[in-house]
Amino acid sequence: MKIGKFDLEKDGVFIIAEMSANHGSDISVAKNTIKAAKEIGANAIKLQTYTADTLTLDCDKEDFIIKGGTLWDNKKLYDLYKEAHLPWEWHEELFRYARELGIDIFSSPFDKTAVDFLEQFDPSAYKIASFEITDYELVRYTASKGRPIIISTGIATHEEIEDVVKICREQGNNDIILLKCTSAYPASFEDANLSTIPDLAETFGVVSGFSDHTLGITAPIAAVALGAKVIEKHFILDKKIGGPDASFSLNKEEFNEMIESVRHTEKLLGSVSYEMTDKKIQSRQFSRSLYVSKDIKKGEIFTMNNIRSVRPGFGLHPKQLHDVIGAIAKRSYTFGDPIEQNLLKNV
């Protein structure tokens, strides 16, 4: 599967810098965030395309007041989304700017009108946000556009994940990426349950990844070690910008450290291999092999007292110790002589 020019099979882990609300309502901040993401090696910058009116109602009733121990408790949903949204009139310039820099760019649509709006920019993918996974009509419509679809599973039941995967496939879209996600801001390590990442891939026959809301960079590294092919993390140019997502976003230095650690983890994982590389062969000099540990005269018997398995590894393989023990020496050997294959023939 490819996202833009990035091949998930060949090019490693696809790292998404999530701008979210970290634009400070200033397009220059948004553009500088894109530039910074490119500079530190992120593969894509992701936007969110909604307005307060496409997400909720401008209503003061209790149901529309945030509660439950979140960062935004006692705030009205409408007011939060009005503050956080990225103006739609910015999209054209941001898409153009990102492409000029050579970094991929796409967005999370939050309703059908956002999908229709984003189509004009020919995005490389779409992302369904965690809280939108239950909006089956949105998933169906987005999948019907035939672009890779990345879906966060944060609040979903197992049945709902089955449903949305089926919906995508019914639309002829098999380019599905499911992201393990804990929809808490910030999320605790105890709630991360990263072992779900390989299970998502195996159970649903999709590519799996991780949308991270924990603090720091430990969780993304662990996710990659468990097989995540996509990592998404909130990115902010400077936490002084503030905003709804600032406290659980990584700044440029932190995000750069995460990217470097992910790339190191990829190298560490490598591939399944038992090949005898040049380095492995060279290192075998420090393995054990059979050496004469006491002078042996011609006609004497090789015993455990005059032959030992020791370092270095230039002698006969230790597995052949019992081929030597009990045999009669056909010539003399001195302390430190290796027992080699041709010497074994003379035993």
Characterize this entry briefly.
33% of the residues lie in helices and 15% in strands. With 347 residues, it is α/β, with parallel strands linked by helices. It folds into two domains: 2-50 and 85-269, TIM Barrel; 278-345, Antifreeze-like/N-acetylneuraminic acid synthase C-terminal domain (Type Iii Antifreeze Protein Isoform Hplc 12), CATH 3.90.1210.
Number of domains: 2
End-to-end CA span: 61 Å
Catalogue the unreliable spans. Answer: none
CATH superfamily of the largest domain: Aldolase class I
Question: What is the element layout, followed by pairings?
Answer:
Layout lengths: L1 E2 L2 E2 L6 E5 L8 H14 L3 E6 L2 H4 L21 H8 L6 H11 L2 E6 L2 H8 L6 E3 L7 H8 L5 E4 L5 H13 L5 E6 L14 H9 L2 E6 L5 H8 L4 E5 L17 H18 L8 H6 L5 E4 L14 E4 L10 H4 L16 H5 L2
Parallel strand pairs: 3-4, 3-10, 4-5, 6-7, 7-8, 8-9, 9-10
Antiparallel strand pairs: 1-2, 11-12
Helix pairs in contact: 1-4, 6-7, 9-10
Key structural traits:
347 residues; alpha/beta; TIM Barrel; Type Iii Antifreeze Protein Isoform Hplc 12; two-stranded antiparallel sheet; 13 helices; 33% helix; 15% strand
Structure, described:
The protein has 347 residues and is α/β, with parallel strands linked by helices. The protein folds into two domains: 2-50 and 85-269, Aldolase class I (TIM Barrel, Alpha-Beta Barrel); 278-345, Alpha-Beta Complex (Type Iii Antifreeze Protein Isoform Hplc 12), CATH 3.90.1210.10. 33% of the residues lie in helices and 15% in strands. The protein is built from 13 helices and twelve strands. The strands form three sheets. An eight-stranded parallel β-sheet has the order 5-4-3-10-9-8-7-6. Strands 1-2 form a two-stranded antiparallel sheet. Helix 1 (27-40) packs parallel to helix 4 and helix 6 packs parallel to helix 7 (158-170). It is elongated and about 100 Å long. The model has no long low-confidence stretch (mean pLDDT 95).
